[in-house]
What does this fold into?
Amino acid sequence: MPRFILVLVIAALALVYVQARASWWLTFMIVWVAAAHVTGAAGQVATTVLAILFVLPALVLTIKPLRRTWLAKPVVDIFRKILPEMSPTERDAIEAGTVWWDAQLFSGRPHRDTLLGYGPATLTPEEQSFLDVECEKLCDLVNDWETTMVWQDLSPTTWQYIKDKGFLGMTIPKQYGGKQFSAYAHSQVIMKLATRCSAAAVSVMVPNSLGPAELLMHYGTEEQKKHYLPRLARGEEIPCFALTSPYAGSDAAVIPDVGIVCKGTFEGRETLGFHVTWDKCYITFGSIATVLGLAFRALDPDRLLGGDAEPGITCALIPTDHPGVNIGRRHWPLNAVFQNGPNSGKDVFIPLDWVIGGRAQVGNGWRTLMKYLAAGRAISLPSSNVGMAKIAVRGTGAYAAVRHQFRTAVGKFEGVQEALGRMGGNLYVMDAARRLSAHAVDLGDRQISHHRTHAHGDQRRHGRRRRQRHLHGAVELSCARL
Ligand SMILES: Cc1cc2nc3c(=O)[nH]c(=O)nc-3n(C[C@H](O)[C@H](O)[C@H](O)COP(=O)(O)OP(=O)(O)OC[C@H]3O[C@@H](n4cnc5c(N)ncnc54)[C@H](O)[C@@H]3O)c2cc1C
It folds into this structure.
């Protein structure tokens, strides 16, 4: 019997090493128990015990219906009792989009060829030229010192250049006057700007990702698209999108802002619409926007729309000069100088036509936000984070080369080299994740964004974590100097 146990241990290690399928384990267990019985190493009782201990578990794990009934279902039932029930809004958020190739990372056997088959992300000649000419020129126009110390904003010349050269319409289709750039090109532009001036990067990325344009392109009525998209592309309209409020941030589905369906007078005519009451804060471009994308919970107590009494989150576009819209004072989030501010309104009447996509989209706001704004976030936040990390690594590396102590460049000391190496390595990982995310969006897997922002939200969290590490690296570098 000891020899059989030795065989069992060696074979199990070998099966683990080759990551053998469950069916191989089952086959091996049957052969092993049978051999032990036939050779007389295990008697009748021992054979039965071995079969129960080894063959039965392998059988349950291998045969799907058995596995589901005896193992997966009882475990899931236990978890169902432990976990809080999932709300419809949470379900919408989780179900928005797909999980793309990233799902394979959790399979234990990611399909590398599928990943390589996507090929590298590339730029068209037009996109490359925009990056080399317009984007380069914008980088010449701005720098962090001037935006923070002189203008506390982008300079008027910079704003005009951004509008004139179409930076605010990079994702808008050409037929509506935009540039129709790929997500990858968008990402390259934001990353480059972020190496020069964070306010410029944020000011360009928000209308291209978080702004109402994305929602209009997918859900807007033709009339809304024709009206807004060319103006947004030319920078004649400055958009903002107000979802979160002082009381609902991460848990944005519970926003307290409401719009009650009612009849009101608009442009002299009785019109079906909403009385909207809202209070939003930290809204990027909120302080300068001409058009406010607003998310609120639609309520229809009199069932004027003929459906549910609580249709749900709804997104509308409201001109900021509409009576009742309050644009509050400007926020200074961590003294960053990109434009950001609160806005509010009480019982402001807006016509139903201002809902993005019109009547058909009343109540669909949450699903649409989860699906499409997440894609933008998968581009904007990772790209700006990688840009900032690149400049941090470059600056730190250069400093380590020119700063001499003990008659040696500090970058030549082992402790500093280790920190620099870690920073460079992490930067490669970050940049690879950024490129892959943008490429995935271009390939059509917009949910990647959702995945990126929540589950893997990948990029965003990776970006932040990596940046922290870079900063830690920089701190270590300073320590090394001391
Ligand atoms: C500079 C800036 C610009 C912004 N621009 C806009 C904009 O244009 N439009 C807009 O609608 N909103 C905007 N926001 C608001 C932004 O969306 C919210 O700040 C964000 O959703 C987080 O909400 P919160 O700040 O209320 O934090 P909270 O939700 O209060 O979270 C506080 C902390 O708890 C953590 N936390 C929360 N829930 C969990 C959980 N389940 N598990 C673990 N940790 C958790 C969070 O990560 C965070 O660290 C902006 C905010 C800032 C700072």
Remarks:
- The domain at 239-363 is CATH 2.40.110.10 (Butyryl-CoA Dehydrogenase, subunit A; domain 2).
- Residues 210, 240-244, 249-250, 282-284, 333, 340 surround flavin-adenine dinucleotide (CB under 6 Å).
